[in-house]
Each structure stands twice: as C-alpha cells, then as structure tokens.
Amino acid sequence: MKHKDKVAVITGAARGIGRACAERFLAEGAKVVLGDLDAKRLKETADEIGPADRVLAVVTDVSRKAAVDALVAAAADRFGRVDIMVNNAGIAMIKDFLDITEADYDKVLGVNLKGAFLGVQAAARQMIAQGRGGVIVNMSSINSGLANPRVATYAISKGGMNQVTSTAAVAFAPHGIRVVGVGPGTILTEMVEGSFIDSEETRRMILSRTPIGRCGSPAEVASVVSFLASADASYITGETIYPDGGRRVLNYVVPVKE
C-alpha cells in the first residue's frame, strides 16, 4: 500500500472529488481527516467510508484561518502528524461578468483561493515542525488557464491557486515538502452538474471539445492525487497536472467524435 500509515487531511471531503480522495487514501493504507462545512453530509461520509479509528471528521470553514489551523491541529492531535494535505474545497457560481457583486467575488475567492492559501500555510507549518517533509496537493481546474466568463470568479480563483502551488513549492522545497496541483476537466460531481453543466447544450459543447469523448469521474481524479502524493512522484513539485480528457491540448479545428 503506497500510503500505509500516512495521515492525509482533505478539505471539501463530504462529497465529490474530496470524498473520492478520502476513499482512495483509505484503500491505500492511510488515515484520513475530513474537513467540510456541511456538518450533516460530513458525518454521513465519515460513517460510510471507513472505521472510526482511521477516519476523523472536522467541520471546517476554509475561508477562516482559525478553522483551517484547527483542522490541521486536530489531525496532528488525533493521529500524531500530517503527511498529506489536499486543499480541495471549492465553490462556483454562474453569473455574467458585470453582474458579479463584491460579495460574490469575496465568497468564491474566500473559499477557493484564500482557503487553499491558508491550507498550504497550516500544513506547511505542521510539516516543518515534524521535520520529515510532506506533500500538499491543491485542487485547481482547467479553468485556471481557460477564459470562461460564465464562471469568472471560479476561473480567477483557480488561476491564482496555480501561483499558490508554484510559489509554495519553491518556498518549502528546502524542508522536503512538495507542493503540486491537480486541474480536473469536467468531472461529474454535484457541483459540476449543478453549475457548469446547466443544460444539454452545455454538455454537448463540453464533450465536443473533449477528445476522450466523456466526462471524468471523481475516482479518476483521486487516482492522480494519490500518485502525486506518493513516493512515485518524488521528483515532481510546483507543477499542476490536468486530468481533463485532452481538453487543454485540443486545437479547435480538430473534430471530436461524441
């Protein structure tokens, strides 16, 4: 098992990609600490995915520094250390660019960008104190580098996250801490189906630009996260890997069969 006896902290872990990551780490021998703002769903997930001696659930608002620090502290208190941090919590909203309010902007960037930044800080401080390195994974998106005005705040937050990943990777390399990103394409989660895929027309448009010809699954993203967090990726840091079915590399003149 590639993560035997490691301790992985995952935000946004009550559903979707976060839950899939927790399930993958558990299957590979790790103990997991789940952070999420949805207390009811978080408890249900924790009860469903594994035994109580290997799973800890902590209600967490990642936009608040005290809450993120408390999540990492709870992991260290319960399991003795933190080896892996997955900053996965994220939200999205569809709005025309000029309709985005200051509150909208602050809400999305507070969770997606500030939350990841705070998670990197908290995890790095704990890992440095432990003196044995670690891995931090930030959940980005293909929208970090693609202009999509319908989800402007989301795209802006993910673009910023890529810089969090690269700058933190350089900052913490001397401590043996790797910082990497994962930028999924269209993955069938509740958030995606409730925001990005808001019509059959949108679904067909996405698939027409996806060479593999389908949307991805949370488990497929979790497999990339697991790899990057493992010793198999020991020489990778500062990079964001894109499990996107080929969307980012597609030239628009190339037809895609749906």
UniProtKB/TrEMBL annotation:
Family the entry assigns: Belongs to the short-chain dehydrogenases/reductases (SDR) family.
Keyword annotations: Oxidoreductase
Organism: Hypericibacter adhaerens
Gene Ontology molecular function: oxidoreductase activity
SUPFAM superfamilies with a match to the protein in the record: NAD(P)-binding Rossmann-fold domains
Keyword Secreted recorded: no
Protein's UniProt name: Dehydrogenase
InterPro entries found in the cross-reference section: NAD(P)-bd_dom_sf, Sc_DH/Rdtase_CS, SDR_fam
